[in-house]
Specification:
Elements (H helix, E strand, L loop, with lengths): L4 H15 L4 E5 L6 H15 L5 E5 L2 H17 L18 E2 L12 E5 L9 E7 L4 H4 L2 H12 L5 E11 L15
Parallel strand pairs: 1-6, 2-4, 2-5, 5-6
Antiparallel strand pairs: 3-4
Length: 184
């Protein structure tokens, strides 16, 4: 069984955004194309290659972001290369946050999730994944779209210098927030 070409293209795009400045990317594709699945695999690979990376998964709702973190955790728990990454003490191994074995002295979890309107003040991240922040209930009026844009601008204060920000989603309106995402 081979990996579908569009999944390979998605992964290549994600790696390119991570490795090359300005470290900003926007991935839009049709619903059920496997975007979030490939992104979960990508995040697990980033943690494998760079275990001290702090990752924030942001979605329209915390439950949606938690599904992504659960997907990442499942990959880490079941992939043979990731066995040594799983901590013996799973204190930070829950649905909304996971911390892999890594250098001490890092305050933030390896991966944490939050809804777009949740409290992210004081957080720091090296990689921010904005997965489906635009959904019908966050973009069905001009006022909601502007509030969403304002909230997303705050992410620059959370992202570490030389950090990476990737938006993933499907546009839900002609005035989609994805047209104005800071990707360059």
């Amino acid at each position: 069984m081979t990996t579908p070409t569009h999944h390979q293209n998605i992964m290549n795009f994600l790696v390119d955004v991570l490795e090359n400045k300005p470290h900003r990317g926007l991935l839009t594709a049709f619903r059920h194309s496997g975007k979030s699945t490939v992104v979960g695999i990508f995040v697990a690979c980033v943690l494998y290659m760079r275990p001290n990376t702090r990752i924030l998964v942001l979605s329209a709702e915390t439950t949606l972001a938690a599904r992504m973190v659960n997907h990442i955790r499942n990959i880490l728990e079941n992939h043979p290369l990731c066995v040594d990454m799983i901590p013996k003490n799973k204190k930070e191994w829950a649905s909304g946050r996971i911390t892999i074995n890594r250098s001490v002295g890092i305050r933030e979890p390896s991966v944490i999730c939050q809804g777009i309107h949740g409290n992210i003040t004081g957080s720091r991240a090296d990689l921010i994944i904005c997965d489906d922040v635009e959904v019908p209930n966050t973009c069905n009026t001009a006022q909601k779209r502007e509030m969403l844009r304002e909230r997303l601008r705050e992410l620059d204060f959370i992202l570490s210098p030389n950090g990476t920000m990737i938006y993933i989603g499907t546009p839900h309106t002609t005035d989609t927030i994805y047209r104005t995402c800071d990707t360059d």
